[in-house]
Amino acid sequence: MTLASALIGLTALLVVTVALGVFLQWRQNRPQRHIAHEVVEPARLGADSLGETATLLQFSTELCSRCPGVHRTLSALAEGYEGVRHLDIDVTHRPDIAKHFHVMQTPTTLILDKSGVIQTRFGGAPSRGVVELELARLLSEAEPARA
């Protein structure tokens, strides 16, 4: 193997690795909407109820460095919308919840409608703007049609 072919091979490997990293980062902040619909029961989460119009359900762990920032963002959003509730579930000691909801990374955020049906899923730390767009979409769909 010559030095030139080794450098070409390393360069190709570097390009593929960077491209994969960029793709995964891009995908992380994009909402997933093709979710098998399941009704989330608040009792399973240890909560008394869900939001009247929507619920921002965050899964965190004790060692998650991005979870406190996401918690502040989602709490502020929930306070800004009437009937929206933010629930933060620590899955460190609840592996059954993590397994059930297929939580592979933290934070993971689910947006539930008023019935508890999962409408949107975010893996990683979603931006405030993207969550606001998803909430607006969900809340506009929940409004009764005007005559």
Write the layout of secondary structure elements.
Layout: H1 3-28, H2 42-45, E1 54-60, H3 67-80, E2 84-90, H4 95-100, E3 108-113, E4 118-123, H5 128-142
Describe the structure.
This protein has 5 helices and 4 strands. With 147 residues, the chain is an alpha+beta fold. The protein is elongated and about 70 Å long. Strands 2-1-3-4 form a 4-stranded mixed β-sheet.
Please supply descriptive tags for the structure shown above:
single chain, 147 residues, alpha+beta, four-stranded mixed β-sheet, 5 helices
Classified by CATH, the class of the largest domain is: Alpha Beta
Supply the CATH superfamily name of the largest domain. Answer: Glutaredoxin
CATH T-level fold name of the largest domain: Glutaredoxin
| Domains (count) | 2
Q: Helix content range of the residues, please? A: 40-55%
**Helix and strand element order:** HHEHEHEEH
In the sheet with the most strands, the strands line up as 2-1-3-4
Number of strands: 4
Average of the residue pLDDT scores: 85
